[in-house]
Design brief:
The complex is a heterodimer of chains A (293) and B (352).
Chain A: H1 2-32, H2 39-57, H3 61-88, H4 95-117, E1 122-123, H5 128-131, E2 133-136, E3 139-142, H6 144-165, H7 167-177, H8 179-184, H9 189-215, E4 217-218, H10 222-237, H11 242-262, H12 267-282
Antiparallel strand pairs in A: 1-4, 2-3
Chain B: H1 2-19, H2 38-63, H3 71-88, H4 93-115, H5 120-140, E1 152-153, H6 169-192, H7 194-204, H8 206-211, H9 216-242, E2 244-245, H10 252-265, H11 270-292, H12 294-297, H13 301-307, H14 310-324, H15 332-336
Antiparallel strand pairs in B: 1-2
The chains are: A mainly alpha (293), B mainly alpha (352).
Chain lengths: 293, 352
C-alpha cells in the first residue's frame, strides 16, 4: 500500500512537469497552428538559467532556488517572445516552415547550451526540507514532490481563471475556436500570439526548473525527453484544451510510473506509447474537443 | 534535348562517383587525405548513404507531404535487427536479410496504419512517439541483444570477405553508391507511377483528392511503407559501413537531421534531397574537425563556443535557408539567373 502511495505521488510530480510543458504547447498549437519544437530547448534554457543565476546569487540553497527559478522563468518567457517576434511571425500562414524554423532552433539552442556548459549534468542545490519526507498513508514521500504538484495545480487554476475571466483569455479562447472570425471582428490576434508564446515559454522554463528539483540535476538532454512525452500528452488530451492536458498528463505519468515499477524499467515508456496508439484507434481527435477551457 | 539532359546528368554524376576510388586526387581543405585513402572513402561513403536515406525521407515529406518525425526508427530497424540476427542469434546472411526484409515491411505497415489515422502535425507527433518507443527498447537492452548505450558489434563471419577490413573500404563505397542508385531508381519509378501522381495531389490538396473519389489513406500508407523499407535498407548499409550498431541512429535528432537535409537541398526534388544529405553529412564531419582546429580554439569564448558546436552552426544555417532560400539549394541556379523558381510549395495542409 505504502509503495502504491509513493508511486502515485511521485507519478503526480512527474505529471506536473508534463502538464506544464503540454499546456503551453497545446495553447500555442490551438491558437496559432504552430508546433513549437523549440519548446524542449526552452525547458533546457530555463533550467540552465535558473542554475546559473542561482550560482551567481549564492547564499542559502532556498534563496538560490527561488531567485534562480523566478529569473529562469523570466528568461524563458523573454526567449520565447523573441522567437515569436523574430522567427515565427514573419512566416505567418506557412505552418510547415514555422515548424522547420523551430526544429532548427531546437537543434541550435540545445547545441549552444551544451557548448557553453558542457554535456555533464549540473547539480541543483536544494534546501534540506525538500529532502525530508512526510508520511502519507504510511508512505514516506520526499517533500519536493508536493512542491511540484502544488505549483502545477496553482498553474492549472491560474491558467483556467486567466482564460475564463480576462479579456485576453477571451480573445485566446475565441482565437482557438475560430481565428478567422476573431480577426474579422477587428481584434488583433497577433498580440495574443506573442503573449501565448511567452506564456508557453514561461511554463516550459518553470517545468525545466521543477525538473531540476525532481531529478536533482539539470542536463542538456532533459528538455527533449520531457518534450516527447508532452507531445503524447497533447495528442491524447486534445489540442488547445488545458483541462484535457491536465487529465492526460496525470494519466500518462501514472501509467509510466506504475509500469516502470511493477513490470520493469522502460516498460512504462512503452506502455505510454501503446496508450497513445489505443487512443488514436478509438478517438483520433484526442479525448477533449478543440476548445480552450 | 531536355530529355537527353534529364538522363545524361545523373548518369554522368554516377560515372564520376564510380571512379572516385581509383583517383589519387588530393583535395586539401575538404578532405584529410587523397580521395583513394580509406578515411576519405569512408567519409564519402557515409555522405552517399545519407544522400540515399534523405531521398527516402523526401518521398514522405517532399513528395507526399507527410511530416514524419520517426524515420530514424526504420534506419534503426535495419541496423539493429541485422546486427542482432547476425551477432546474437548467429544466423546466416541470407536468413538474416530475409528476416530484416519481412520486419522492414511489416512494422511500417502496422505503425503507418495507426499513425495515418491522424493528419498533419498530430501525425508528426505520433511518429515521433513510435520512434521514441524504439529508442527506449534499444536503451532497455532486452536479453542483452541491443547492448544499450554501448551498442553492439558486428559478427563478420557471415559478411562476404569483400566488405571486411580497411583495405576493402573501396567496396563499401561502391555499396553505398549502389544504395543511392537503387533508392534513386525506385523513387523515380514510384513518383512517375499513377500512385505517384496521387501522392503529389495529396501534398497539394488532400480534400480535393477525396472529393475526386479517392481514399488518400492507402496511398499515404504505400508511400510510408516504401520510404520506410528503403530506410531499412539504408540501415543495413550503415551497419556494414560503421561496423556496428550504436544508439545514435534511434534518436529524434537523427530524424530531425534527415528533415534538415531534405529542406537544405530542396524538398520534393530528387537531386536536392540527395545533395542535401551529401552536403549535411560532409559539413557535419568537417565542422567537427574545424572545432578541434587550433584556429578556432584560439578564439575568444564568444566565438569559440558556437563555432565548436557543429549542430549549432547547422541549425543556424538551416533557419537562414528556410527564411531566405525557401526552395533549398536546388532552387539556387534558377534564383541566380534571376528567375523565380517554379515554386514547389512546402505542404501547407498541416494547418488544417
Amino acid at each position: 500500500m505504502s509503495t502504491l502511495v509513493l508511486l502515485t505521488i511521485t507519478g503526480l510530480g512527474l505529471g506536473a512537469m508534463y502538464f506544464l510543458v503540454a499546456s503551453g504547447l497545446s495553447l500555442i498549437y490551438g491558437l496559432m497552428g504552430v508546433l513549437n519544437f523549440a519548446h524542449g530547448a526552452l525547458i533546457t534554457v530555463g533550467a540552465y538559467a535558473a542554475w546559473w543565476i542561482g550560482e551567481q546569487v549564492g547564499g542559502g540553497f532556498g534563496t538560490r532556488l527561488l531567485v534562480g527559478g523566478a529569473l529562469g522563468i523570466v528568461v524563458g518567457a523573454a526567449v520565447a517572445a523573441l522567437i515569436e517576434l523574430v522567427l515565427v511571425r514573419p512566416l505567418y500562414r506557412r505552418p510547415v516552415e514555422q515548424v522547420l524554423v523551430t526544429v532548427g532552433l531546437a537543434l541550435a539552442l540545445g547545441a549552444l547550451v551544451q557548448g557553453i556548459w558542457g554535456a555533464d549534468p549540473k547539480p541543483i542545490l536544494l534546501p534540506d526540507w525538500m529532502f525530508d519526507t512526510t508520511t502519507v498513508l504510511g508512505a514516506n514521500v520526499p517533500n519536493d514532490r508536493f512542491v511540484e504538484i502544488g505549483i502545477a495545480a496553482a498553474v492549472l487554476v491560474g491558467l483556467t481563471a486567466f482564460l475564463r475571466y480576462t479579456r485576453f483569455g477571451l480573445v485566446i479562447r475565441a482565437g482557438v475556436e475560430n481565428r478567422a472570425m476573431v480577426t474579422a471582428l477587428g481584434i488583433d490576434v497577433r498580440r495574443a500570439f506573442t503573449i501565448v508564446f511567452a506564456l508557453g515559454g514561461a511554463l516550459a522554463a518553470l517545468a525545466g526548473v521543477l525538473s531540476g528539483v525532481y531529478f536533482g540535476v539539470v542536463d542538456p538532454a532533459r528538455g527533449t525527453s520531457l518534450l516527447i512525452f508532452a507531445f503524447i500528452v497533447v495528442v491524447i488530451g486534445g489540442f488547445g484544451s488545458i483541462g484535457g492536458s491536465a487529465v492526460a498528463a496525470v494519466a500518462v505519468a501514472l501509467i509510466q510510473q506504475y509500469a516502470n515499477f511493477y513490470a520493469s524499467s522502460g516498460i512504462g515508456d512503452l506502455a505510454v506509447v501503446m496508450l497513445l496508439a489505443a487512443v488514436l484507434l478509438v478517438r483520433p481527435g484526442g479525448l477533449a474537443p478543440k476548445v480552450a477551457h | 534535348m531536355r530529355r537527353a539532359l534529364g538522363i545524361g546528368v545523373p548518369v554522368g554524376v554516377l560515372l564520376v562517383l564510380a571512379v572516385v576510388p581509383e583517383l589519387g586526387l588530393d583535395i586539401p581543405l575538404l578532405f584529410n587525405g587523397p580521395l583513394d585513402s580509406p578515411g576519405t572513402l569512408q567519409l564519402l561513403a557515409l555522405c552517399l548513404l545519407f544522400a540515399g536515406i534523405a531521398l527516402s525521407y523526401d518521398l514522405l515529406f517532399g513528395v507526399t507531404g507527410l511530416l514524419s518525425f520517426g524515420h530514424a526508427l526504420y534506419v534503426a530497424v535495419g541496423v539493429y535487427v541485422t546486427a542482432i540476427a547476425l551477432t546474437r542469434w548467429e544466423w546466416g546472411l541470407v536468413p538474416t536479410l530475409a528476416f530484416v526484409a519481412v520486419v522492414g515491411l511489416a512494422l511500417p505497415l502496422v505503425l503507418g496504419a495507426v499513425s495515418l489515422r491522424v493528419g498533419g502535425i498530430a501525425f508528426a507527433m505520433v511518429t515521433l512517439a513510435f520512434a521514441q518507443a524504439g529508442t527506449v527498447l534499444v536503451q532497455k537492452n532486452p536479453y542483452g541483444w541491443t547492448g544499450g548505450e554501448e551498442g553492439t558489434g558486428l559478427n563478420y563471419e557471415e559478411i562476404p570477405d569483400g566488405f571486411v577490413g580497411v583495405l576493402n573500404t573501396k567496396n563499401l563505397y561502391w555499396l553505398a553508391l549502389a544504395y543511392v542508385v537503387l533508392v534513386f531508381v525506385v523513387v523515380r519509378l514510384a513518383v512517375g507511377s499513377s500512385a505517384g501522381h496521387v501522392w503529389r495531389a495529396i501534398r497539394e490538396n488532400e480534400p480535393r483528392v477525396e472529393v475526386l473519389g479517392l481514399n488518400p489513406v492507402p496511398f499515404k500508407l504505400i508511400a510510408f511503407v516504401l520510404a520506410s523499407f528503403l530506410a531499412v535498407l539504408g540501415g543495413i548499409v550503415w551497419l556494414l559501413l560503421i561496423g556496428g550498431a550504436t544508439p545514435e541512429v534511434t534518436t529524434a535528432n537523427f530524424t530531425l537531421a534527415l528533415l534538415v537535409m531534405v529542406v537544405l537541398g530542396g524538398a520534393g526534388t530528387r537531386s536536392g534531397a540527395m545533395l542535401g544529405g551529401f552536403l549535411y553529412t560532409l559539413l557535419d564531419q568537417r565542422l567537427g574537425s574545424l572545432a578541434g582546429s587550433s584556429e578556432v580554439q584560439g578564439l575568444p569564448d564568444v566565438l569559440r563556443v558556437p563555432l565548436s558546436e557543429p549542430l549549432f552552426l547547422l541549425g543556424a544555417l538551416f533557419i537562414a535557408l528556410v527564411f531566405f532560400v525557401p526552395g533549398g539549394l536546388a532552387s539556387l541556379p534558377l534564383r541566380l539567373r534571376g528567375l523565380r523558381p517554379k515554386r514547389e510549395p512546402l505542404p501547407e495542409k498541416a494547418a488544417a
